[in-house]
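worker-3 :: picked Allantoin permease
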Amino acid sequence: MSHVADEVPLTLDGQPPKTLGVLDQGALWANLGVSLLGFSGALLLLDPTGDAPLSLAAALVATVVGSLVGTAMVGLSAIPGTRTGQPAMVLLRGLFGARISYAPTVLNIVQMLGWGAFELWVIAKAASAIFDGVAYPVWVVVAGVLTTALTIWPLGAIRLLRRYVTVGVIVSMIWFTWHFLSETPAPAGGSWTGFAPAVDYVIALSVSWVPLAADFARHSRSARAAFTGIVGGYTIAQVACLGLGVYAVAIAGAAAVNADNTAVFDPFVAAPLGALFFGILVLRETDQSFANVYSTTMSLQNLMPRVDRRIISTAIGVFTVVIALVVDVTSYGAFLGVIGAVFVPMFAVLAVDYFAFGGGGRWNTGENAPSRWSMLVPWALGFAAYWLTTSTPTIAAWDGVWASARDAIGFTRQPWMNGALGAAVVAALVTAVIGVSRRRAARR
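worker-3 :: tokens ->
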């Protein structure tokens, strides 16, 4: 088979090659689980509410629990893509109908552009920590060009990750772990009070990948390989990344990292051989921006199915570079909260309808797929449930709206409540009720 035949088709009319095994996907998702943003994000993990710092044990347990829950959602969302060969947003034609699918598609485009800009920003800032004589815009442009090139040959990029990059990342992570553990005492103090919002935060980190999992899993040799690669690779890597970030924040100082996210990079660069191993992690970060730009491309192809993906990827790559030059990274935590509120309940609706009510056999993913307005009800109720139960602060005015809503309905949020799980449970239950009602109506 030629190299061209082994690559992603240029339009949605082409047949996706099934070339990715469990090692390919494990390497891809392990690399996605190690994020430079995750190192600074450890600050949000340690104190998600801003007034109840976690103990080290609580933070690590929250990381494991949140990662397992979140990656299970991502893994399950990948299975329909493997079975149908369709990208994530095209699958939503089966769930919502073709025209309604355009709404979550646009939301995904917006969040992927945001993530892509974040990644170019963090790559440029991290590179500047190593080579401080090079201007920030130069690194943004370099990272943007490399990102765009990877999206032109996406399956080749995944094979490159498996064969070469993953080994360097593993060695780098082991090196920094050994150095931090041997040089720095474990963070002391804290409690379990903020455990639930910390789990929310970690789930949001993981579940942000739900809307693009099928974009890669459609090329998997089997559903089992896709699920195993995602859950195994991403969970292990994210736990290691956030755990390492906890120590990096302790070394750099929480106050310094809170004032400047990039301060968390200093302990890495200052370590013996730090510039070398941190440079590997910086180079690897382009797989994050690659995944975001590529998913944006796949989402746009749901709207423009016969436009060459290379043209779309190039345009998105340029646009993401422009955004990265002016992006405001102080909204990172709020951004994750919004992602979780939107896509966690959407995943729950998709999973219940597909796996419990035969979506695999009856979904129409064509451009003429009829609208299924009833599926918007559980999604909307799950969205509301997220904000009613979460204790993770985002934007003051928005949080105030939901505080008023709780008062209006006489609902008291309990400390043990978790927004992501609350949203998933409500959306899943309402979807199940709709599915059962539909079956009964069909029998009559």
